Amino acid sequence: MEKIDITTRFKRDGSLIPIDFSLEDQTVQILNVGRQWDNEKGKHILVMDFRENTYHLFFQLSDLSWYLIRDIKPGPGSI
Questions:
Q1: Which residues make Cβ contacts (< 8 Å) with residue 42, sequence separation at least 6?
Q2: Distances from the Cα of 42 to the Cαs of 6, 38, 52, in angstroms?
Q3: By the 8 A CB rule, do 50 and 44 touch?
Q4: First to last CA, the chain
């Protein structure tokens, strides 16, 4: 799990919409937001970038920080 900087937006209903995040020295622009779920430790969000790479993001309640849990699936444009 890697701590990341992220840009998010709050909708009127309080839901979080990730816009982009920093990964090493690059910014990953988010194209689609997929499944989201909460547990006792925080909020999990699956997102996809423009190259169809899928990422599992996590907002941890204990320190109010964002983390990249792992890259789930590399897209066809990342080879």
A1: 58, 59, 60, 61, 62
A2: 16, 6, 25
A3: no
A4: 23
| Every domain of the chain and the residues it spans | 2-78
What the block records as the tokens of 5 is: 């900087």
Strands (E), the chain: 2-4, 6-10, 16-23, 26-39, 42-49, 54-60, 65-73
Gap between the Cα atoms of 3 and 1, Å rounded:
7
- Classify burial at 47, counting beta carbons within 10 Å of its beta carbon; exposed 0-12, middle 13-18, buried 19 or more: buried
Q: What is the Cα–Cα distance from 29 to 12, expressed in whole angstroms?
A: 22
pLDDT tens-digit map of 19-61: 999 988 889 999 999 999 999 999 999 999 999 899 999 999 9
Predicted TM-score of the model (pTM): 0.81
